Amino acid sequence: MLKEAADTEVVAAVRAVAAGERYVHPALGARLIAAEAEERRRAEADPLSDREREVLSLLALGHTNQEIAQKLFISVRTAETHRAHIMQKLRLSSRAELVRHALAEGLLDEPS
Questions:
Q1: Are residues 54 and 38 in the same domain?
Q2: pLDDT tens-digit series, residues 4-44
Q3: Domain range spanning residue 38?
C-alpha cells in the first residue's frame, strides 16, 4: 500500500487482507516483479555470493578448509558448507574443476 493511496483503496486493502487475501498496490506489484526478474537474471549470470567467490578463490589457490576458516574468521564447518554450495551451484565435482572455473573467472588473485 502506498501512503498516498485514497481512502477507498485503504479500505479495500484492509478488507482483502481480513478475508485472508493478499493486497499489493498495482504500482508496487510492477516494481516487485521487475526487481525479482533482475535478481533472477543476476543469479543466473553469477550464482555465487561474494563470500562463496572468496572461498572459491582460496580453494583454488590450494588452501585447506582449516586455513580458509582461519583466514575468513569462520568455522571449519562453515568453510566446508561454502565449498559444498559452490560445488552444487556450479555443478562441479572435483578440486581440479574448481581451479579451472576460478581461473576462467579471474579469481586466482590472493585476497587481502
A1: no
A2: 888 888 898 899 999 999 888 887 887 888 888 877 777 66
A3: 7-45
Residues 40 and 54 in one domain: no
With 90 as the cut, is the pLDDT of residue 78 above it?
yes
- Report the first-to-last Cα separation within the chain, whole angstroms: 45
Number of structural domains in the chain: 2
State the alpha helices, DSSP H only, in 46-94. Answer: 50-60, 65-72, 76-90
Non-local CB neighbours of 72 within 8 Å, separated by 6+ positions:
51, 54, 55, 58, 79
- Asked if residue 111 lies in contact with residue 58, where contact means CB atoms within 8 angstroms, the answer is yes
Q: Do 69 and 88 have their domain in common?
A: yes
| Sign of the CA dihedral running 73, 44, 25, 14 | negative
Same domain, 58 and 93: yes
- Over residues 83-100, the pLDDT tens digits come to 999 999 999 999 899 999
- Distance in angstroms (rounded) separating the CA atoms of residues 78 and 85: 10
